[in-house]
């Protein structure tokens, strides 16, 4: 099988999780801060470690076959690539934020104002969609200080916890765009090694959203428990030494986990153990 190449962020918010995800696919390679190129030992994949800003261009120009980059960075780059998978990590939002005394009542409040951002392309598109005319002040970083130094009335920047905005005396007015890390390729790129990688990535992502639950339950409650767990072909039920009780094993979606947990407790489940699943297939 021919090797394919992937561009990853060398160091930053995407690096660790990208590497972690690829390692969870059973792909073994060496990478440290000084390494710019690497080859997987047990999979036809080679790596290029670069700044995230360069990844869309490298993929577009065929310098690498695929890459992992924030969706925001891809859309801002203007390159038309295929989003092969949304990997779900490094999620954040692009928000309008302004000083506490700025009266924001929706995006129209930005009419005639100046907005500082590092994402002029995405912002311009959203303003145009909403028929708002505003001046965009492009800054490469530290966008949050722009209003306090009178460079702009408001800002449009990435937010995850919102702490940075608060620390700079800004309020988050409205989130206008969502982003997370995506795996990209050139449009229509296909390769057996990519297919193999994707099936492993899918297994890793599926497992991430599920928990493995084990608990003991009075035998006569098993049908009710099966209903609560839901969405499953059947939980695995094993007899216990005490004939009135059984041991149950099931896979539960992380989103439903707490409601399932509480319902099982109400039903009389005891000794509930919850485990992470490393990999699984549908
Ligand atoms: O050096 P290189 O160019 O490769 O990296 P970079 O500095 O351009 O990017 P990096 O590593 O900071 O971010 C990479 C990607 O992570 C971004 O393109 C986003 O897709 C994603 N991401 C997720 C974030 C955030 N969350 C985030 N919170 N990128 C930046 N931030 C910044 C934001 O700009 C603001 O300054 O964090 C601050 C806000 O954080 P909170 O938690 O206080 O709200
Ligand atoms: Zn960057």
UniProtKB/TrEMBL annotation:
UniProt keywords, alphabetically: Amino-acid biosynthesis, ATP-binding, Cytoplasm, Glycosyltransferase, Histidine biosynthesis, Magnesium, Metal-binding, Nucleotide-binding, Transferase
Gene Ontology biological process terms, A to Z: L-histidine biosynthetic process
Pathway, per record: Amino-acid biosynthesis; L-histidine biosynthesis; L-histidine from 5-phospho-alpha-D-ribose 1-diphosphate: step 1/9
Main localisation: cytoplasm
GO molecular function: ATP binding; ATP phosphoribosyltransferase activity; magnesium ion binding
Residue ranges constituting the Histidine biosynthesis HisG C-terminal domain according to the UniProt record: 207-279
Pfam families noted in UniProt: HisG, HisG_C
SUPFAM superfamilies documented for this protein: GlnB-like, Periplasmic binding protein-like II
The reaction(s) this protein catalyses: 1-(5-phospho-beta-D-ribosyl)-ATP + diphosphate = 5-phospho-alpha-D-ribose 1-diphosphate + ATP
Necessary cofactors: Mg(2+)
Xref: InterPro entries: ATP-PRT_HisG_long, ATP_PRibTrfase_cat, ATP_PRibTrfase_HisG, HisG_C, N-reg_PII-like_a/b, N-reg_PII/ATP_PRibTrfase_C
Cellular component annotations (GO), alphabetically ordered: cytoplasm
Gene3D superfamilies documented for this protein: 3.30.70.120, Periplasmic binding protein-like II (3.40.190.10)
UniProt EC number: 2.4.2.17
Protein's cellular compartments: Cytoplasm
Annotated ATP phosphoribosyltransferase catalytic domain residues: 51-201
Regulation: Feedback inhibited by histidine.
HAMAP family assigned: HisG_Long
NCBIfam families, sorted: hisG, HisG_C-term
Family the entry assigns: Belongs to the ATP phosphoribosyltransferase family. Long subfamily.
Task performed by this protein: Catalyzes the condensation of ATP and 5-phosphoribose 1-diphosphate to form N'-(5'-phosphoribosyl)-ATP (PR-ATP). Has a crucial role in the pathway because the rate of histidine biosynthesis seems to be controlled primarily by regulation of HisG enzymatic activity.
Protein's name in the database: ATP phosphoribosyltransferase
Organism: Candidatus Ornithospirochaeta avicola
């Amino acid at each position: 099988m021919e090797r394919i190449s992937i561009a990853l962020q060398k160091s930053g918010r995407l690096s660790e999780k990208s590497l972690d995800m690829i390692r969870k696919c059973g792909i073994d390679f060496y990478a440290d801060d000084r390494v710019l190129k690497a080859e997987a030992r047990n999979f036809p994949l080679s790596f290029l470690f670069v700044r995230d800003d360069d990844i869309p261009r490298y993929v577009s120009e065929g310098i690498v076959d695929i890459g992992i980059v924030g969706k925001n960075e891809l859309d801002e780059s203007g390159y038309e690539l295929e989003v092969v998978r949304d990997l779900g990590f490094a999620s954040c939002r692009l928000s309008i934020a302004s000083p506490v005394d700025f009266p924001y009542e929706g995006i129209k409040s930005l009419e005639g104002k100046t907005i500082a951002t590092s994402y002029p392309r995405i912002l311009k598109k959203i303003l145009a969609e909403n028929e708002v005319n505003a001046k965009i002040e492009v800054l490469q970083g530290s966008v949050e200080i722009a209003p306090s130094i009178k460079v702009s009335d408001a800002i449009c920047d990435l937010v995850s916890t919102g702490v940075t905005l608060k620390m700079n005396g800004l309020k988050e007015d409205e989130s206008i765009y969502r982003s997370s890390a995506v795996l990209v390729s050139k449009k229509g790129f296909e390769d057996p090694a990519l297919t193999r990688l994707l099936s492993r990535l899918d297994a890793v992502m599926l497992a991430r959203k599920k928990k493995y639950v084990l608990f003991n339950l009075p035998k006569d409650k098993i049908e009710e428990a099966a209903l609560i767990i839901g969405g499953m072909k059947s939980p695995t039920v094993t007899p216990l030494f005490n004939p009135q009780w059984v041991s149950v094993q099931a896979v539960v979606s992380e989103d439903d986990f707490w409601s399932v947990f509480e319902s099982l407790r109400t039903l009389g489940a005891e000794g509930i153990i919850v485990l992470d699943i490393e990999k699984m297939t549908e």
